Fold this sequence. Notes:
Layout: E1 2-7, H1 14-24, H2 32-35, H3 45-49, H4 53-57, H5 64-78, E2 83-88, H6 100-112, E3 117-125, H7 131-144, E4 149-155, H8 167-176, E5 181-184, H9 190-198, E6 203-206, H10 214-222, E7 226-229, H11 231-236, H12 248-254, E8 258-260, H13 272-283, H14 287-300, H15 305-326
Parallel strand pairs: 1-2, 2-3, 3-4, 5-6, 6-7, 7-8
Bound molecules: zinc ion.
Amino acid sequence: MFDLHLHLDGSLSKEDFIYLSKLSQVELPMNYESLIHCPKEAKSLDDYLRCFDLPLSLMQVKGSLKYSVKSLLDRLSKLGLIYAEIRFAPQLHIAKGMNQEEVVIDAIEGLKEAKIKANLILCAMRGDKNELENLETLRLVKKYLGKGVSGFDLAGSETLYPTNLFANLFKEAQKLGVPYTIHAGESAGYESIEQALDFGASRIGHGVRAKDNEMTMIRLKENKIFLEICPTSNLQTKAFLRYEDLPIRLFLLKGVHFFLNSDNMCVSMTDVNEEYKAIIKAFKLHKNEVYLLLCNALEASFIDEEDKWALKKKMDENFNDWYLNLKV
Ligand SMILES: [Zn+2]
């Protein structure tokens, strides 16, 4: 019913690729379908991240983000979602002349015609030559907060550019008072999560490596920091081999708050309902436990209290039907 960890560039449909290639005047390679899904032989997060090259090449002109956001929200509405947070990195869309702000405005336009409520999370990118671009992204979060943008994130290769390199960026984020999540503890260990907690993140993207350290789990629980777990993506990046290996029961037992997400509907060939199905089956989750995870997602969402109450009412009205439709 909620997907709060969902990358725009990793979630295009086949129709989107065709439409965007015409809009962008970029010819699709003959074998394009083999380039946009995570290959079975992927060995790591870095292999996974290569699947974003083609979609990004098609999302560099005005109208391309607006179209992609609207199309994604239409699909989410059909899946029965009632709220979503869609994320992307504006600095990866400026190769053909748009600036970061124009990219953000284009994406916000896509929210306006959508059938469900949604907000945008703007991602900074892990790297060592883009400090200014990351700061610009952060300033845009502040400028458009509450106007279509709800939060800030740090994405990219966690192994090449460890979380500790971004202390200044998050010091600034704290100063500006914007809410943020940080991808951490996905391909790197629990230390990366500790770092994100030190930086003041209120949510952690993935965070599954918290399982390796008792103190990290206690810290997550006591500070009520939510983990955005994306199970299929974790299998594809080889963080785990089977759904059963994910620390779902452990986190429930330890009181670590989390909820499920799709990460990338196209790259991972999934959607958030499929993620719930897989985890319910693998761990024989009780209906009450599934409800609890949805409550976590709602509580963790970057929206104000009034909107949360409205969504809670909608969630309760729709929960039974949504659960039945999962056919678990
Ligand atoms: Zn992600």
